[in-house]
Design brief:
76% of the residues lie in helices and 0% in strands. It is mostly helical. The protein has one domain (40-161). Helix 3 (69-80) crosses helix 4. The longest helix is centred in the N-terminal third of the chain and has 37 residues, at 29-65. The termini are far apart.
Length: 172
């Protein structure tokens, strides 16, 4: 008794050819060793650029507010958010500390100490500023702040590759 030969399936043959071609095009393990350091180096420089960009943003914002002094900053924020739904005492508390927080955050990012915590803090601080601008009906400024929050997220992701960071013994 003879067995009948199964009919050839052209789509199966095409799938097998595609798999074989894909396997031949894969990067050999020896080549992957050279790709990894290049990626790490790029992420290192992305982290450095994010630190400089967001750190200089906070530094310049603080420098611009410095001539007004604390009372001037409180007056500006109070007048800006006078008719908003935010409670006045919250606005005054935020306005009293924002100058110090901006200087401190800039220095923190520049130093590279506990970068993960610095990026999380920076993002949260920018969110508080964005929410305030939404309540002040300054949607363009709020939109800019949310873009800065995105930059903080990029900094957070790339911070593990930052070789110029001061590492702490306890991870956050």
């Amino acid at each position: 008794m003879r067995l009948a030969k199964a009919p050839e399936n052209p789509s199966l043959r095409l799938q097998q050819s595609a798999i074989l071609l894909h396997m031949q095009q894969r990067t050999p393990i020896t080549d992957q060793a050279f790709i990894r350091p290049a990626t790490d180096s790029n992420l290192h420089w992305i982290s450095i650029l994010m630190r400089l960009a967001v750190g200089s943003l906070f530094l310049c914002a603080a420098i611009v507010k410095t001539p007004m002094g604390i009372s001037g900053v409180v007056g500006y924020y109070s007048s800006l958010l006078e008719h908003s739904l935010l409670p006045g005492f919250l606005v005054r508390i935020h306005a009293n500390v924002i100058l110090f927080l901006e200087y401190g955050t800039a220095l923190w990012l520049f130093s590279g100490f506990r970068l993960r915590a610095a990026w999380i803090f920076s993002g949260l601080l920018l969110i508080t500023l964005a929410v305030g601008m939404i309540f002040a009906s300054k949607y363009d400024v709020a939109n800019d702040n949310y873009i800065y929050v995105l930059l903080c997220a990029v900094g957070l992701v790339s911070s593990t590759f930052d070789r110029w960071a001061l590492r702490s013994r306890v991870a956050l």
